[in-house]
Amino acid sequence: MPALGFAPAALAQSAGDQAAEQTSEADGEAEKIITVTGSRIARDGYDAPTPVNVVTEAELDAEPQANIGDYVSTLPAVRGSQSSSTNSGSLSNGQAGIATVNLRNLGANRTLILIDGQRSVASATVGFVDVQTIPQGLIKGVEVVTGGASSAYGSDAVAGVVNFILDKDFTGLKAEYEYGITTYGDVPNHLVRLTGGTNFADGRGKLLLAGDYFTQEGVDTIDRKWQQSGFFQIDNPAYAVGNGQPERLVAAGIGTYQFTPGGIVNSGPLRGTYFGSINPATGQASLNQFTYGPNRGQWMQGGDFRISREGHLNSNSLAPDEKRINVFGRASYEFSPAFELYGQVSYSRYEGQSFYQKTPSPSVVIQRDNAYLPDAFRALMVANNLTSVTIGTGNFGIPAQGSDNTRDVYRYVAGLKGAFDTGSIAWSYDAYYQLGIAKTQEQLTNTWVTSRLALATDAVRNSAGTIVCRSTLTNPTNGCVPINRIGLAPVSDAALNYIFNDGLQPSRRQRLQQDVAAVTFQTASLFENWAGPVSLAFGAEYRREEVDGSLNPDAPNNLGFLYGNYRVTTGDYDVKEAFVETVFPVFEGADLNGALRVTDYSTSGTVVTWKLGGTWQVIDDFKLRVTRSRDIRAPNLNDLFAPGTARTNTVNVPVAGGGTRADTFLEQITGNLNLAPEVARTWGVGGVFMPSFLPGFAASVDYFDIALSGAIATLTAQTTANLCFEQNVASQCAQIAFAAPNDISTITLVPFNFSSVKVRGIDFEASYRASIGPGNLTLRAVVSHYIDNITDNGINAPVDLAGQNAGGGDATPSWNYRLSANYDTESWSFNAVGRGFSDGVYNNNFIECQTGCPLSTPDFRTINTNRIDGQWYLDLSVTKRFKIASSEAEVFLYVRNVFDTDPVLVGNGPTGDNTPAYPQTNRNLYDVLGRVFRMGVRFKL
């Protein structure tokens, strides 16, 4: 078997890939798996100017993951990806459970995902391709093209391309079983894979069938010790304008005070009274006095913060419950070298359940005659002449809200390929049609109807002394079931059923369809010029994207729920494209690579993308490469056709005489048919050093500079209000509707092309391969350094994400690295990986100070600490190979995060009522599961 290192690409390579050419014939065999890179022209060696990282099947086997995306996300060029474990809060947009790949942290919708060089249908209208839908047991390699490739593959290849290569030529039968579990005994999962392939008709025909099944038992709360410290970022209670204190404070021992599990009064003469356990004899809650610490906004430092957080803290899922099924079939028959017919079909099903949070209610009005109020508290209300109080409650007895989503993805491909000659020119071609269909069912769980919960809360006694809803007194058939929100009282199933809309929860079915028809011709020798053969590739493609769907007819229009007030997205567009690419030798050792693509969108018209690159073998030991490209991301189905998702929000608007007032309104986010494609201009300059005096060693350095203009974005409601009322911008005032002259009723937020993004950095790589003793040693270091990742919307101060370790998926540490060592023999394989990233900050615009702080502004806030430690992890694996009769077999053990390193605490906040429910770290960056074991067995006949 080949060494477990990065195999060389057939078209474009990193330094480590080229070094492989100086090793054994086994590594030469690994070369054959690579089929597609950032170019449409196949060439030997690493002659293309765009760097490509290649992950081999052997590497995937050495680091088995529950999800292929988890492996790809460890590559330094990949940052900001989401997984099914990190997006449990994506309820109302239906994205919970989708796993993406995000190159350069430019956004997952700016990374093009391919399967054998072909597009795949997205699993959401925002264009996210769920990599869990790829038949993972059949993946024999992954190529990561770290550079713009729109001229080769079209829209979305702004940051690059991730191409999953399937082993279509496999023959025989292989089976695999994997079991995974954490060192804490949770998140157990099982994975079974079966693959079978055979040839017929003397090898002219091929049949292939593969399938895998994965199941995981999730953890519904964040059950880890490091989660207990109360570490958050808050508005500093000691801050006042001009007093020299930092405006933001990051510290432990922080929690909320606005609610307790059974309810607390936070204003008026009874402030600090909170309701506790229920007395079984009286059925009434105990009265307790809350100890407040210094507080501001929703946060409090010290005091009884442990009491207030109970029930809400950790209520987000650590890991989801999941089931995945992938089935793949392929048949091909070569009638002649010029005519090979093939067809393939794949089916993927994902089922995932996760929980967002146990949502608190900070402002619940309780009338004095509420039947559940303790008599002693009612007496206090009478004594203080109060007819009602407002409590904040963590909603003890109401389960956490979440989603239970299902996605079925179908992909059908039929094609022709072959080779033929016209005179002295040898041509190859590939023509195919693909139909991709994604059927999604977005289903929420435990989500209440706001109006029903309000009616159920307002409980009184009727003339017979029975507790009923007040509304039932005048409408006896309204079905309302009273609920006790005073104290730690259980909630009856009948009451839960009522507030949860009799079990009819928000849901939406969507159907996304992608049709692609494409043909490509290429030759490696169109003609000979003075320096060698000129290569040419050209082709055309037609693509249609559409979406339609339906709502749950029994939950009228999905309106009035706490979350998931879905609306159906409906729309379609088509794309016509033609491209040409050439490689033109200039002199010995130097080539120019040029590509041009003309694309016509039915929604936004014609756009041109191009690439010009070159390679120059300056000396035998050093090669220089450079590229310049123009790439695009066209608006997706959601950008164009979003129907206007509605939610309640609040903005501050100026009033006459100074000051502001808070207006509560309905916020609607819609699509925009006038959007144009985003345009990126990219530079790439690098070199590969392979010293002849040290065989097996190679090093490379590549600089990248991506400037994205006309980025599609949406202003916030507050920014819209500021532009209208403070700057009198007519276009933004047009987005605001009024119920009365001084009462905003609706603000409509529309995406448009107004933002810009600038990403610059350097990729480093060094590798060494050698035969030592009975086996092969492979050492490799891959490092990505981000210099800038700046977003500028032209309104607020530009934000640089480079070096920022906070912010969820926005985090882009300055230095990201992956160091690997492998020793491989005929019977054993040992693999070690050190991966990690550098220290960072909360925000590059923050000003760190303890005392004597300068003026804090919305763009440049002061904070007591602006430092977040980086993290380093060690992963180890060992594989034993043996034979059973004529079968090849191996058993393996893989340990991820060997030292069970806790994540660095990150102070999230200061906004968001979900913040205490979430991990007190950045789980898009740091490992929250701890040590994970994966073990299993593989057989091949």
Automatic annotation (TrEMBL):
<dbReference type="InterPro" id="IPR039426">
    <property type="entry name" value="TonB-dep_rcpt-like"/>
</dbReference>
<dbReference type="InterPro" id="IPR036942">
    <property type="entry name" value="Beta-barrel_TonB_sf"/>
</dbReference>
<keyword id="KW-0798">TonB box</keyword>
<feature type="domain" description="TonB-dependent receptor plug">
    <location>
        <begin position="46"/>
        <end position="161"/>
    </location>
</feature>
<keyword id="KW-0812">Transmembrane</keyword>
<keyword id="KW-0998">Cell outer membrane</keyword>
<keyword id="KW-1134">Transmembrane beta strand</keyword>
<dbReference type="InterPro" id="IPR037066">
    <property type="entry name" value="Plug_dom_sf"/>
</dbReference>
<dbReference type="InterPro" id="IPR012910">
    <property type="entry name" value="Plug_dom"/>
</dbReference>
<keyword id="KW-0813">Transport</keyword>
<dbReference type="InterPro" id="IPR000531">
    <property type="entry name" value="Beta-barrel_TonB"/>
</dbReference>
<feature type="domain" description="TonB-dependent receptor-like beta-barrel">
    <location>
        <begin position="402"/>
        <end position="898"/>
    </location>
</feature>
<dbReference type="GO" id="GO:0009279">
    <property type="term" value="C:cell outer membrane"/>
</dbReference>
<keyword id="KW-0472">Membrane</keyword>
<comment type="similarity">
    <text>Belongs to the TonB-dependent receptor family.</text>
</comment>
<protein>
    <recommendedName>
        <fullName>TonB-dependent receptor</fullName>
    </recommendedName>
</protein>
<dbReference type="Pfam" id="PF00593">
    <property type="entry name" value="TonB_dep_Rec_b-barrel"/>
</dbReference>
<dbReference type="Pfam" id="PF07715">
    <property type="entry name" value="Plug"/>
</dbReference>
